[in-house]
TrEMBL record:
Any one GO molecular-function label of the UniProt entry: metal ion binding
UniProt keyword Hydrolase, yes or no: no
Chain ranges passing through the membrane: none
Protein name: Molybdopterin molybdenumtransferase
Lineage, top ranks: Bacteria, Pseudomonadati, Pseudomonadota, Gammaproteobacteria, Oceanospirillales
Domain (MoaB/Mog): residue spans on this chain: 177-314
InterPro entries recorded: MoaB/Mog-like_dom_sf (IPR036425), MoaB/Mog_dom (IPR001453), MoCF_biosynth_CS (IPR008284), MoeA-like (IPR038987), MoeA_C_domain_IV (IPR005111), MoeA_C_domain_IV_sf (IPR036688), MoeA_linker/N (IPR005110), MoeA_linker/N_sf (IPR036135)
Organism: Kushneria avicenniae
Gene Ontology biological process terms in this record: Mo-molybdopterin cofactor biosynthetic process
Amino acid sequence: MADSGRLHTPQEALESLSSGLAPLPPEWVALEAAGDRVLAQTLHAQHDTPPFDNSSMDGYALRASDSGRVLPVSQRIMAGQRAAPLEEGTCARLFTGAPLPEGADSVIMQEEVDVRDGGVFIPAGLEPGNSVRLKGREIRTGETLMSHGLRLNSAALGFLAGQGFDRIPVYRKPRVALLFTGDELKLPGEPLAPGQIYNGNRFMLMDLLPRFGAEIALVEQVPDTLEAMTQALERASHHVDVIVTTGGVSVGDADYVRRALESLGELDLWRLSIRPGKPLALGHINQCRFVGLAGNPVSSFVGAWLFLRPLLGGLQGCDDMKALPEVIARADFTTRTAGRDHYMRVTLTWDSDGYRAHAFEDQDSSILRSCVSANALAVVGAHSQVSPGERIRCLLLAS
């Protein structure tokens, strides 16, 4: 059981999440479905890229030693066509990407020549290799193409396609269950009775977690009873890799999530020395990970970035998701912290002095509006004061 008598640091929470964490089993997927997936094994080049010497522009291919005179055009070569060997004392008209004919060693762009009735005048001084993309310039057969653990972006997909890969091995997406507590929560479009509110966390997390590579397998609104929460956790634990709850992990009489978790599995860590997000709970039910976020929307937002992102990244074998990228920025605000680290929602801009952090005026954990334009979290340590112009550490909100 977790020590509930003290507040834990964010680093302790990350260490708890990483304990025993291993990537999920790999699977093969079609290349068109591999965007943002994480490569499960190192791939090697299947052929040279480019596969043949080719022209980097529209122009004329020739032997550089023939420059400085008029050369007849002996052939015309389009991209995708096979080139015949270049006849002695001639040049070949060719276009970007077209193969260099055997015997040619350079290309001159069309704007630099003088086309005449008897051929093409090539200015003197042309060097071998001019405007030629040599075979294997980008990569050669057998070289490492991409290493395992790489999260595939659009350029990576294009590079893989250029090597002829139509299916690739990636780590399976973590399956996530989202369980929301609070009898006061209603869905947009439903009428609100006195004391009820709309469930913003549901739609925020359903959009955010897939950006971290998750597959949302279950979404459920759970009644505010210990029995209902226990049953919901038990059901979900058989079908997903991670259970995420919002609300119910504080110390109120109706906060049943912690008790339900402890009846089924283990509570590994509870309560953090951060603002917002103090009531974070981490645990597991057999092999299923559990992350209990606070119910306040900003706490859920910040907790998802700080803790769910690295957990989901670890399950996908992606080291780049272990921590958010950092920059140093100059504050344009004043703040004073008490006994907890404060993760302030800020918008970063760039000027001649570097990054500047603009904080939303109301940083209360209920004000989700503070997150709408935020692109970073400014980290202000406990018992600290920040004045305008001071340098502060900012975590970029980059999925």
